[in-house]
Amino acid sequence: MKLTILGCSGSLAAPGNPASSYVISVPGETDVVMDFGPGALAAMQEQFDPAAAHVIFSHLHADHCADIPSLLVWRRYHPTAPASERHRMIGPSYAPLHFGRMSADRPDAVDDFSDTFDFTAWRTGQPEHLSGLTITPFDVIHPAQESHALRVEDENGKVLTFSGDSCFTPTLIDAARGADLFLCEAAWGATSEGKPEGMHMSGVDAGRIAREAGVKTLVLVHIQPWTDPQQVAEAASTEFDGEIVLGTAGAVFEV
After folding, report:
1. What mean pLDDT do residues 223-245 have?
2. Computed from CA positions of residues 106, 110, 113, 119, in that sequence, does the dihedral angle turn out positive or negative?
3. Does the keyword Aminoacyl-tRNA synthetase apply (predicted)?
4. Which of 38, 110, 223, 229 could serve as a FRET partner for 235 with CA atoms 20 to 30 Å apart?
């Protein structure tokens, strides 16, 4: 499988870097978009067909899903290339209500988007099968209701794990165990100094998880525009001596 970063800016979009959104591609299969934050649709148009992809979500904070109403417009109303079929959407159980309100014409209405997406709710620890991938959600610790890390395995046994948004938790070690590629948030900067309980991770946290899980490559993402990413990477390297990469918009990884 191949991973393309549409954007990985933390908490909000940055110049040239949309907020969290990734595309997982398997030869001969429909692309899978993982999260769809602000700016994702514009980035997606440069390389992929927005009307021909499944969408999955780690959680529903705005920086991970705010471009969904615009995607619905594209899929429904593009004059020459709207969606030709319903694709799958997998996410927290309240996604239809959440997105329905975001996309509705009135404050008291809910847009029923079942015309263009077939929705399934994650069940913790229960894998979903999609585009030749087995995707397993793990509960993580974050203020957003039903926040998950996602472990993605292809038919060749290659593993990609996405931390979603979380503070340090042993669950992330389980989710990332033996992963070939570990996309891990490091929104708090280099260290966790001054961090409130239950809020995000640092470079040190990400490195520790990568080391204890035995991952091959750690990709640091969800770093805010006001943070020096090199300091985050250096902090991660104090815990993890494997390959560390700073995620950037447009980066492609063959897993």
Report:
1. 97
2. positive
3. no
4. 38
Separation CA 74–CA 113 (nearest Å): 13
**Cβ pair 241, 214 in contact under 8 A:** no
In the block, residue with structure tokens 């992963």: 179
Characterise 51 by phi-psi region: left (phi > 0), alpha (psi -120 to 50), beta (else).
alpha
**pLDDT, tens only, 76-117:** 999 999 999 999 999 999 999 999 999 999 999 999 999 999
What's the confidence (pLDDT) of residue 198? 72
The domain that contains 91 carries what CATH number?
Answer: 3.60.15.10
What contacts 24+ positions apart, CB below 8 Å, involve 120-125?
A: 120/88, 120/89, 120/90, 121/90, 121/91, 121/92, 121/93, 121/95, 122/90, 122/91, 122/92, 122/93, 122/146, 122/148, 124/148
Q: How many domains does the chain have?
A: 1
- Within 10 angstroms of residue 172's Cβ, the number of other Cβ atoms is 29
- Measured between alpha carbons, how far is 243 from 215 in angstroms, rounded to an integer? 9
**What pTM value is reported for the model?**
0.96
